[in-house]
Amino acid sequence: MPETSQGPFYTQILADYGAEVLKVENPKGGDDTRLWRTAAEKDIWKPTGKDMSAYFCAINRNKMSITLNLKQDKGREILFRLVKNSDVVVENFVPGKMDKMGIGYEKLREINPLIIHASVSGYGASGPYSHRAGYGAIAAAEAGMLHVTGERDGPPTRPGLGLTDMSTGLYLHGAILAALLARRDTGRGQKIDASLFESQVSLLSNVAMSWLNAGEHSKRWGTEHPSIVPYQAFKTKDGHLVLGATNNRQFQILCHLIKLSGLSTDPRFADNSSSVQNRAELKEILEPILNAKTAEVWLAVLEGCGLPYGPVNTIEEVFSHPQTAARDMVYSLPHKESVSG
């Protein structure tokens, strides 16, 4: 399964499933992400290891790697030999680039009629933006996610993870599996055209539906939920706790636990629709109560209540979490050097 992608989350998933993935890199320095080190990484790599980063390892596990100069005949010949015995080719060139290099889908299909060619780009293979380079943060901006992310009165905020990139990877890996199933039934390969922009537009979901059907402009809500109140992160004495009540019964339970049972009969908060209209007043009531005790105390109070709740954990706390250990979510694997060719 040759790959020429700088954002190979989707092929990482397939490799985790057991697929044999061969990553094809540029002979001049390899994948750019090899050099994307954080400041803390200076102490974890050997002095001779100048072309490796945690970022690269995080999205390329379980893969083999070679370098090919696809601008030369010899490099293309090697690629064609690989394609002849492969199931899927994944790439993220600007649309049309592979055709100009003589390695596009039509050429690959001549070599292997069963090949599945999965292409991911910034904006897709058609339309006025099709030839623009694609980056997750730009797609997140243009396709609306940054507009709805951040504090209510603050500027747009980039999420702490590359959600647009990763979501596109999830979409694309599913599309590849669907194409493999279709090939089993039809005996034909096909080309898959995915893009960061389209993935992000699809993720707008209920925000998009509100605009398309009611003309409702979206807002930034911080950690608050636009249509469920209360449901947000509250400051505790020593951190933050995400807490919510998604229906009247849960709100009554919450009021009982915080010793304000009468609050559930207040006309301003009689049901969720009323609470949404009066979210500021309810927030003013709840914030000082939750801020008076530590997160650990509140977790003990909430244990077994049936409400949605959880602490805002640091990364250290995530990897010491008992559920992380119980589900075997961390494995230590040896690192092997890539093979150049």
Automatic annotation (TrEMBL):
GO cellular component terms, semicolon-separated: mitochondrion
GO molecular function: succinate-hydroxymethylglutarate CoA-transferase activity
InterPro entries registered for this protein in UniProt: CoA-transferase_III_domain (IPR050483), CoA-Trfase_fam_III (IPR003673), CoA-Trfase_III_dom3_sf (IPR044855), CoA-Trfase_III_dom_1_sf (IPR023606)
Keyword presence, Transferase: yes
Record key words, sorted: Transferase
Keyword Transferase: yes
Superkingdom as given in the UniProt entry: Eukaryota
Pfam families: CoA_transf_3 (PF02515)
Protein family: Belongs to the CoA-transferase III family.
Protein name: Uncharacterized protein
Lineage of source species: Eukaryota, Fungi, Dikarya, Ascomycota, Pezizomycotina
